[in-house]
Write a structure and sequence with these properties.
The chain is 37% helix and 20% strand. It has 325 residues and is an alpha/beta fold. The strands form 3 sheets. It has a 7-stranded mixed sheet, sandwiched between helices. A 5-stranded mixed sheet has the order 9-11-10-13-14, sandwiched between helices. The chain has a two-stranded antiparallel sheet with strand order 1-8. The protein is globular, with a radius of gyration of 19 Å.
C-alpha cells in the first residue's frame, strides 16, 4: 500500500495500464511533455515514450475523433480534455459518433475509449474552467459516466473504465485532486462501474452524492451526528449506470432522502435520482425527496464563486429540515 492523493492514483492507474496493454495510448493538450495542467500524467511520456503518451493539437473535436478511429481499430485510447468547459467543441464527435458506434454497426464494432475531464468548481478559475457537464453525458445512450471521490476509487474506477468495451466519460473533481490522501494498493485492481458504495450507515435519512460533494457531505453528517441524527451516505460513483438497487434499499430503510450535486438543478442528475426513488421507494417515503444542487446559472467567476458552491452548513440545514419534517 502507498499513500496517494487523487493525482497520484490516476497517474498510477495510467502507468499500470500502459505497461499491461500495448493498445493503451494517452494523449491530449499538454499531456505529454508537461504532464497536463494538473500534472496528472507527469512522467508517463518519459517512461513509456512519445508514441504512447503524447501532446495533441489544441483541437478537442480532433482529439475525440482520432480516439474513435483508434478504438475502432483495436486500440484503447485515454484522452484528456484539459478543462470541463473545453469538451464542448468535441460534443459532436462524442454524441454523434463515439456514443453511437456500437449501435450504428449493430454490435460489429465498439468504441473502447476513455475521455478524462477535470471538472467542477472550487479552484477560483475562469469561465469554461469550472463546469459540471455530467448531465449531458448521462443523458446520452451509449456512454458510461464515472466520477470518483477518493484516490482509492479514482484508481480502481479508471482501470475498470479502460478495460470496459464501451466509451466512458471519466470526470475528475479537480478541487479534490490533492485534498485527500489515503492508502492505495500499488497493484492493479478495479471497481465495477455502476456500483455505488455506502460510506456511512444510518437510519433516519439517506444522503446521495458523488465526486467533490462527498467530502462536503461527510462534514455535514458529522455535524448531524453531534445533534443526534443518523444519516446514511451513498457515494454514487457512477451517474450512469445508476445503482438503483443500493439507492432503493437505503431509501426504503430510512424513508427520507437528500441528493447533493454541484451540477445545475434543472434536468440534472438529482432530478433523475428523485425519479428513481419515486419509482422504487415511493411508499416508504416519510418526507418529500429533496435536492440540494448548483444554481441554474453559469458558475460565477472567482469573486462570486463562494456564493454558488455547496457548503456543509447548507447540507446540514437540509438534513435538519428533512428529519424534522
Amino acid at each position: 500500500m502507498k499513500v496517494m492523493n487523487m493525482v497520484n492514483a490516476i497517474n498510477d492507474a495510467l502507468d499500470l495500464m500502459l505497461t499491461a496493454d500495448p493498445g493503451v495510448v494517452v494523449y491530449g493538450e499538454d499531456v505529454g511533455v508537461e504532464g497536463g495542467v494538473f500534472r496528472v500524467t507527469e512522467g508517463l511520456q518519459l517512461k513509456h515514450g512519445v508514441q504512447r503518451v503524447f501532446d495533441s493539437p489544441l483541437a478537442e473535436s480532433g482529439i475525440a475523433g482520432t480516439a474513435l478511429g483508434m478504438a475502432v481499430a483495436g486500440m484503447k485510447p485515454v484522452i484528456e480534455m484539459q478543462f470541463d468547459g473545453f469538451v464542448y467543441p468535441a460534443m459532436n464527435q462524442i454524441l454523434s459518433h463515439i456514443a453511437r458506434f456500437r449501435n450504428r454497426t449493430r454490435g460489429k464494432f465498439s468504441a473502447p475509449l476513455v475521455i478524462r475531464i477535470p471538472y467542477g468548481g472550487g479552484i477560483n478559475a475562469l469561465e469554461h474552467h469550472s463546469e459540471s457537464p455530467e448531465a449531458y453525458f448521462g443523458h446520452t445512450p451509449g456512454l458510461k459516466v464515472v466520477i470518483p471521490s477518493t484516490p482509492y476509487d479514482a484508481k480502481g474506477l479508471l482501470i475498470a473504465a479502460i478495460e470496459d468495451p464501451d466509451p466512458v466519460i471519466y470526470l475528475e473533481p479537480k478541487r479534490i485532486y490533492r485534498a485527500i490522501k489515503q492508502e492505495v494498493p500499488e497493484e492493479k485492481y478495479s471497481i465495477p462501474l455502476g456500483k455505488a458504495k455506502v460510506l456511512n450507515s444510518g437510519e433516519q435519512l439517506t444522503l446521495i452524492a458523488y465526486g467533490a460533494m462527498i467530502r462536503e457531505a461527510q462534514k455535514a453528517i458529522a455535524m448531524a451526528k453531534q445533534n443526534g441524527f443518523s444519516v446514511e451516505l451513498i457515494d454514487l460513483r457512477s451517474i450512469w449506470p445508476i445503482d438503483r438497487d443500493t439507492v432503493r434499499e437505503s431509501v426504503r430503510k430510512t424513508g427520507r432522502v437528500l441528493i447533493v450535486t454541484e451540477a445545475p438543478q434543472s434536468y440534472g442528475p438529482a432530478a433523475e435520482l428523485m425519479a428513481v426513488i419515486n419509482e422504487e421507494a415511493f411508499l416508504n417515503l416519510e418526507a418529500p425527496p429533496t435536492r440540494l444542487t448548483g444554481f441554474d446559472t453559469v458558475i460565477p467567476l472567482p469573486l462570486g464563486e463562494k456564493h454558488y458552491l455547496i457548503t456543509p452548513q447548507r447540507i446540514y440545514h437540509e438534513i435538519d429540515k428533512l428529519i424534522r419534517y
